[in-house]
Specification:
Elements (H helix, E strand, L loop, with lengths): L14 H14 L4 H6 L3 H17 L5 H15 L2 H13 L21 H14 L7 H35 L18 H4 L1
Length: 193
């Protein structure tokens, strides 16, 4: 599938955008397609890049596996194959076990997931469900596990992933091959039902 807006090629991009492309290619091995599509609006592309960088620097309260699994579940629930693919790569780069993603539908009972990870995935599901189904008990449980700052970080990460995934899906941006190859074979939430 091709994107609904054509990616902006480096030869058509302004200088600062080309520099961002170069940095992204060095960091990830290729230019992430969302960058090249968002580049049609250079100021929003830059705002997004600054926001993502600050978000990465600020997100230090939660264990990486808790944060990344919640974000992954969110991307998968929304149906953003690009986000699933890229998220699997980020988990691999963090040294996390991505093979267990094949069993994520069984997270609630699988011994592959810790109680903290289960709570975060269930919360990601509750936040992403429309209308959301978050309960006071759920937030209280997360607060006991991660503290108030952890609840805010988890909620923020899930909210941002909802925005990313919905934006990429709306623009027709699909997987790019960042993941291990196995990750795109994980059944989508709509197929599991």
């Amino acid at each position: 599938m091709t994107t609904r807006l054509e990616p902006l090629t480096p030869d058509r991009a302004p200088l600062l955008t080309r520099l961002m492309y170069r940095y992204a290619k060095r960091r990830f091995g290729e230019i992430p397609e969302p960058f090249a599509v968002y580049a049609h609006h250079p100021r929003l592309l830059r705002a997004n890049a600054v926001h993502e960088g600050l978000l990465q620097l600020a997100s230090t309260t939660l264990p990486p596996s808790v944060r990344e699994l919640a974000v992954y579940w969110t991307a998968r629930t929304v149906g953003c194959s690009w986000c699933v693919d890229f998220g699997a790569m980020l988990m691999r780069l963090e040294g996390l076990d991505i093979d267990r993603l094949k069993h994520i539908d069984d997270y609630a009972t699988s011994p592959l997931y810790t109680d903290d990870e289960r709570a975060a995935i269930a919360y990601a599901n509750a936040v992403t469900t429309d209308p959301h189904t978050v309960t006071d008990e759920q937030v209280d449980d997360l607060r006991r596990r991660f503290g108030a700052a952890g609840v805010v970080e988890l909620t923020y990460q899930i909210g941002v992933e909802n925005m990313r995934a919905r934006m990429n899906s709306a623009l027709g941006i699909t997987e790019q091959g960042f993941g291990s190859g196995e990750t795109c074979r994980v059944p989508w939430a709509t197929e599991a039902n």
